[in-house]
Amino acid sequence: MEVERVQAMASALMTAETIPADFIRPEQERPAITTYQGPAPDIPTIDLSLPDRESVVRAIAQACEEWGIFQVVNHGIPTELISRLQAAGKHFFDLPPEEKEAYAKPPGSQSIEGYGTRVSKEVNGKRMWNDHLFHKVWPPSTVNYRFWPTNPPNYREVNEEYTKYMREVADKLFLCLSLGLGLEETAVKEAIGGEELEYNLKINYYPPCPRPDLALGVAAHTDLSTLTILVPNDVPGLQVLKDGRWIDAKYIPNALIVHVGDQIEILSNGRYKAVLHRSTVNKEKARMSWPVFLEPPEEWVVGPLPQLLSPESPPKYKAKKFKDYMYCKLNKLPQ
Questions:
Q1: With CB atoms 3.0 to 4.6 Å apart as the test, which of 89, 127, 130, 225 could cross-link to 203 if both were Cys?
Q2: pLDDT 10s digits, 69-107
Q3: Closest by alpha carbon to 200, among 224, 178, 219, 220?
Q4: Which residue numbers delimit the Fe2OG dioxygenase domain (predicted)?
Q5: DSSP secondary structure of 210-267
Q6: Using CA atoms in the order 61, 65, 70, 74, what is the torsion angle rounded to 10 degrees?
Q7: Active-site annotation, residues
Q8: Where are the beta strands (DSSP E) in 77-217?
């Protein structure tokens, strides 16, 4: 195996007192020091089934403006389907290493798809405590089943069914985002790719960590996406920066967590905020999450919506192709 997987390393360290130095965060990032311990507000929770659409639109717009993140309940995805999605993902990560490696991201590949571990270190030379599986789920023309596990046998069926429901939830959210900006119902979705919008599923696997006070599963970042819609397991770990403080996201069974990504912040000209978030790890249990990143096609140009611009509200962001935005962000170049 060319890459040392975090899961394998964590298994070998189960009784250790410490972790390798390249996983130890600088003091100003360590969760034990930086997590806010006082009374903190909860991330907004929104019931998508309420008959009063105006109140749902208002709640989502307010959450996007003040938080950049919210949880949705009664979203229409069956509880048992979420359970099957989680069971299929856990089954994959419980497989022997050689079975998982059959789906590894090819060496030198520019694609995000495949089983992997982030090898490139961050600017400060640190690594993150997680492995992942990444593959596209929509539209069909972009799907490469080479990276979809065949074990468990129901993996494809479950993920395709989940994607069907996920697209319905996404359409509801885009409609609410449009109305919240005072625009036509279809304005936001059309501005970020319409029916060409790509859905990328990632399974994050954060193994138990002997020193969760020193490590992070994922360092602080905003998502490149338009929206990220995520299902977690029951092991807490998501934190968001709110009013300068890192606060824990409360676990709500079967809720979806919705992150505003960079592209929605850009097209709303800053009205909706991309959320700065990170993931902590647990000493006893593996944390898992299933984010779906909704992204424009690479050649699609995203910029502030003209309807939102005026002499009093000039553009705050440049319009650019999504692939160029992605290149700058991943290589830490100015936008």
A1: 89
A2: 999 999 999 999 999 999 999 999 999 999 999 999 988
A3: 224
A4: 196-296
A5: S-TTT--SEEEE--SSSEEEEEE-SS--EEEEETTEEEEPPP-TTPEEEEE-HHHHHH
A6: 0
A7: 202, 221, 223, 277
A8: 114-117, 131-138, 198-206
